[in-house]
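Worked example 3. Consider a protein that binds zinc ion.
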Amino acid sequence: MLVNSRWILDRAKEGGFAVCAPNTNNETFARVAIEAAEENHTALILDLNYPQIPDMVFFGRIVERLAKDASVPIAIQQDHGGTYEQAIWAIRSGYTGIMPDRSDKPYEENVAEVAELVKIAHAVNVSVEGEIGHVGMEDEPDTIRKNLVQPEMVKDYTERTGVDALAIAIGTTHGLYAGKPFIDFDLLAQCLAITDVPLVLHGGSSTGDELLAQAARSGICKINICTDLLMNAARLWNEAGVTDAGKGVKYLRQGYKEKLVHYMNVFGQVDKF
Ligand SMILES: [Zn+2]
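Given these inputs, the predicted complex is written out as structure tokens:
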């Protein structure tokens, strides 16, 4: 069944676990992800990323159909939306959550642009995720520490924008790590004390099971995973010595699913829906 992202996040927050948001940028992986969710009686927030899916309407409608047919709750979430137009097109394409990411802009611009989109999205029951602090791409530990969220902003930002979810920079980075992964759990606790809005973590890949399990237990409601799923799919493909691409697709499916189910267990979300 198709639900909005907030519906899933509220249940995760109440239950003390996190829900995985896998990047699903093609139909094969969308089908595999939903299959894994159904087999494990759990929900998923499918992340669709614009640069990889420029034809939002076509692919959005495919995933919408798959989600509606699913026996478990599925949300379709825009991942790192860059422009106002992309947000509106996502809503029009059947997405049930948008993420206007203005974390690289001055704080007041971030607040103003996201608040405007919250007003529009809520009018049609679509959830909105904002981001403060900045989760970069394969950053060094020093850069990560410089861009961590400032807890005092959490209260101001959530109240003024009305977002349904907030991505906070507490140590992770997108892609692979340049240094030793860390999560600042004191900072997370400070943010949790300030707001009831579900908090989410980007850049889950290669952070390590122990840190992610602790984050899920400590109040993070959604963890985005992309690279680890794709790398596991590639690993199985390579190990099988695939020479015929048509015959190799099953290894991509298997590798993506195996790692996704692994994370469902790490995040404590199995059998919760
Ligand atoms: Zn992200």
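Take a moment to read the result before moving on. Residues 80, 135, 174, 202, 224 surround zinc ion (CB under 6 Å). The chain has eleven helices and eight strands.
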